[in-house]
Each structure stands twice: as structure tokens, then as C-alpha cells.
Write a structure and sequence with these properties.
It holds the Pfam family DUF6869. This protein has one domain. The protein is globular and about 40 Å long. It contains seven helices and no strands. Helix content is 59%, strand content 0%. It has 155 residues and is mainly α.
Length: 155
């Protein structure tokens, strides 16, 4: 099953420089984003896919689908670092209250998702109850998480 990107987002993004013509679904965006983030970049320029994913902040359901599919397809720790410190952190900061039940459920069933949660940090004073739940959801992974240099858990 494919998840279409919102048409209004596609129309805006396709007017951007270097926009690929064939990215119209979350799955196509995941493939491009993973390729663009396979390793730590040399320069400071962000590829189109990173800018596109940033725009998904306004579309939380599509962002959630992107996060889950990108995490499933990730092959390097760097990809998970970028996913955690970007899209996952944005989802929690902007829509955490609406997604915390799903985040907890995913963390219970996926060591890889718990690993990704170890790379997420609060963006402001925010909701302390929400962050207590995030910390509990990632607790089992903290000793071998991103900041500890742990390996990427298997799929």
C-alpha cells in the first residue's frame, strides 16, 4: 500500500529547485531520503528530500508514515540519527500529545524504534508528562542508544 503525499505539498515542493519528478508518495520520498542520508554529508547544503520531510511537519499522519517506513529501511546509524534528530523530534515537539500512544506502542514492539528515540531531545520546556512517557518508552535502549555509540538494531 502506498501513501500519497498531500497534493498541496507536492505542488509547492515541485516548484523548488532540484525537485525530482517522481516523488509523489511517502514511499518514494523514503527511498530518496535514505539515499540522500546514507552517510554524513561533507557540506552544509541540505538535499531536496530533507527539505521535503521538514515540510511534512504540517502533515502529521504522513510524517508518522514516513518515520516508520524510513526507520524500517534504514541501513546505517547515521540515517537513524538524522531521522531521530529531525522528523521524529519534530513530530514529538509539534504533535506529541496526539501521537504518544502510537509512539509507546511502537517502542514496546521495536528495538529499532527505541534506539531512534534515544536520539530525540525536548525542544523547549514543553510538556513534562509527555517527556516522562518518551523517557519511559526509550529506557531499555538508553545504555546502547545513539549517544552511547550503540549498533543499529536489526529490523
Amino acid at each position: 500500500m502506498t501513501t500519497p503525499l498531500p497534493p498541496e505539498l507536492v505542488s509547492v515542493l515541485c516548484n523548488e529547485a532540484n525537485a525530482p519528478e517522481d516523488v509523489r508518495t511517502v514511499e518514494a520520498l523514503v527511498a530518496l531520503w535514505l539515499a540522500d542520508n546514507a552517510q554524513e554529508p561533507e557540506g552544509e547544503d541540505f538535499p531536496w528530500s530533507v527539505l521535503c520531510v521538514y515540510e511534512l511537519r504540517e502533515y502529521p499522519e504522513e510524517l508518522w508514515a514516513f518515520i516508520r517506513k524510513a526507520l524500517a529501511g534504514a541501513e546505517t546509524v547515521w540515517q537513524v540519527v538524522m531521522l531521530a534528530a529531525g522528523p521524529l523530534e519534530d513530530l514529538i515537539a509539534d504533535h506529541g500529545a496526539d501521537f504518544i500512544d502510537r509512539i509507546e506502542r511502537e517502542a514496546r514492539h521495536s528495538a529499532r524504534f527505541r534506539f531512534a528515540l534515544t536520539g530525540v531531545w525536548p525542544q523547549d520546556e514543553g510538556d513534562t508528562a509527555l517527556w516522562a512517557r518518551i523517557e519511559k518508552a526509550r529506557a531499555l535502549a538508553m545504555d546502547s542508544g545513539i549517544d552511547m555509540g550503540g549498533p543499529l538494531p536489526s529490523r
